[in-house]
Amino acid sequence: MRELPVSAVRDAVRRLFLDINRKIGPDVEAAMRSALEKEISPAARYALTQLTDNYAAAEETGLPLCQDTGMAICFLTVGQDVHFTGGDLNEAVQQGVREAYEEGYFRKSIVEDPLFERKNTGDNCPAVLHLSMEPGESVRLMGIAKGFGSENMSRIFMLPPAAGEEGVLNAIVIAVREAGPNPCPPIVVGVGIGGDFEIAPLLAKRATARPLGVHHPDPRYAALEQTALDRINRTGIGAAGIGGLTTALWVSAEYAPTHIAGMPVAVCICCHASRHGEIAI
Questions:
Q1: CB 3.0-4.6 Å disulfide test: which of 22, 162, 178, 239 passes with 47?
Q2: Closest to 35 (Cα-Cα) out of 23, 22, 51, 24
Q3: What b-and-e string marks burial along 9-43, b requiring 16 or more CB atoms within 10 Å of the CB?
Q4: Could you give the 3-state DSSP secondary structure of residue 256?
Q5: Rounded distance, CA 247 to CA 218, Å?
Q6: Cα gap 217→221, rounded to integer Å
Q7: What's CA 11's distance to the chain center, in Å?
Q8: Secondary structure tally for the chain: helices H, strands E
Q9: Where are the domains of the chain?
Q10: 13's torsion region: left (phi>0), alpha (psi -120 to 50) or beta?
Q11: How far apart are CA 148 and CA 158, in angstroms?
């Protein structure tokens, strides 16, 4: 049995969200620079150059990559032989987010009541916490800072099984076309297939955090990812929505078992500042 103080989780959450809000991942930066190298549209090249310059400026100054420092999403995977001590685990996660957003002078964007009063909570909490268990004594944290310019463009489609692969591809392209320039392209697209109405979006959200350039291990899903990416980039939406070769930097898909009568498909869209990271505690 491993005993772990919840303060260790709090500190890990704080470090992770300070880091991902101020420094783009090397996979995203490499994909952006690759897009810039092959772009032929002068307007799109200008837009891509501004984005890469912004990455460098954020890292140099310690300022956030974007003024929308997002809703904090935490995926915490805990070994079943871990015993947390010294307090409440959920509150430790929330406190880590509070400290990160205060220390980093990040924008606090969470409102308590979504419909009527919409009063800001003032600390970017509550964060979203997804907790899962696995054998052993490991504790792994994956964090996503999700801006809502792109989150608002995400979609779910409850397709019939007969829709097949072509139906899934059409749903992905429809979501991207309808999003247009709103999610600040070039985008990263996560696709969740299967499960139910709640599982598919969760799969899609997690898929956006897979390193860019890494395909699904199942070659069928890897081929689906590549086909979807090619079709998205043929839409011509382009960087900043002003045209060009690259509308999406990458497409990642994940799947789960589902009911015989359905095929849920969720499309989670991230902006060019796809902010995510992982840390072992």
A1: 239
A2: 51
A3: bbbbbbbbbbbbbbbbbebbbebbeebbeebebee
A4: strand
A5: 25
A6: 8
A7: 22
A8: 8, 10
A9: 2-20+65-146, 148-275
A10: alpha
A11: 23
Query: d(Cα 150, Cα 276) in Å, to the nearest integer?
Result: 14
CA 40, 45, 47, 53 dihedral sign is: positive
Identify the residue whose tokens are 């310019």.
149
Structure tokens at 253: 């898909």
Q: What is the pLDDT of residues 201-254, one digit of tens each?
A: 999 999 999 999 999 999 999 999 999 999 999 999 999 999 999 999 999 999
Please say whether the structural domain 2-20+65-146 has been given the CATH code 1.20.120.
no
Tokens matching residue 161: 């099984």
pLDDT for the residue 158: 98
**How do strand 248-258 and strand 263-270 relate by DSSP bridges?**
unpaired
Q: What stretches in the chain show pLDDT beneath 50?
A: none
Structure tokens at 227: 């086909």
The structure's pTM equals 0.95
pLDDT digits (tens, 9 = 90+) for 254-276: 999 999 999 999 999 999 999 99
